[in-house]
Amino acid sequence: MRSRMSPGSQEVRVGSRLDVGTVAMLRPRLHEAVESGDGDMIVDLSDLEMIDSAGLGVLVGTHRRALRAGRRLVLRGVPPRVMRVLAITRLHRVLRVELPVAAVA
């Protein structure tokens, strides 16, 4: 996980897996990022290949923590496979997903 701050937002890039094997390491880093920044917290999922229910739980928990901190969690670069999982679980209605510029045009 890599983090980058810019005016009005903070970007965190997640690796290739967000599952039961990685959430124990990733959860505290995401929570720390929420607490240490301001503005939108952008989670870049463009490298994500695998997500399971534990990974979804971390995203929902981070979303809730961000709301309590007066921030907004935004998912960027969501791969189609992961977007299908978000749609099936209806989390695309809860979590803010940034659409690619080509999809908006």
UniProtKB/TrEMBL annotation:
CDD domains, sorted: STAS_anti-anti-sigma_factors
Transmembrane segments: none
Domain STAS: 1-105
InterPro entries noted in UniProt: Anti-sigma_ant, STAS_dom, STAS_dom_sf
Domain of life where this protein originates: Bacteria
Pfam families given in the database record: STAS
Similarity field: Belongs to the anti-sigma-factor antagonist family.
Name of the protein in question: Anti-sigma factor antagonist
